[in-house]
Amino acid sequence: HSPEAIEAYLKDMATRGIPANTYNKRLSMLKKRCRQILEENGLDESYRRKMEAF
């Protein structure tokens, strides 16, 4: 799941009229999951910063 793919998925959900609170819950879940994956794989800081900016 690249940041771009996740963003596209979320935009798609938004255009289908998914309630904002569901949308935000999923967004924070995805961000948490991404952070987990980054930590497990010890990926570099620049990528982590990019994810946090997103």
Task: Describe this entry's structure for a reader.
This is Core-binding (CB) domain-containing protein. The chain is an all-alpha fold. It has one domain. The protein contains 3 helices and no strands. Helix 1 packs antiparallel against helix 2. The longest helix is centred in the middle third of the chain and has 22 residues. The chain is elongated and about 35 Å long. The two termini are 13 Å apart.
Q: Shape from CA axes?
A: elongated
Note the beta-strand portion: under 5%
The share of residues in helices is: over 70%
Q: Helical segment tally?
A: 3
Radius of gyration (CA) equals 12 Å
The number of distinct β-strands equals 0
Average predicted local confidence, pLDDT? 78
Main sheet, how many strands, which sense, barrel? none
What is the gist of this entry?
With 54 residues, the protein is an all-alpha fold. It has helices spanning 3-15, 20-41, 45-53. The radius of gyration is 12 Å and the shape is elongated.
How is this fold's topology laid out?
Blueprint: H1 3-15, H2 20-41, H3 45-53
Q: Main traits of this protein?
A:
3 helices; mainly alpha
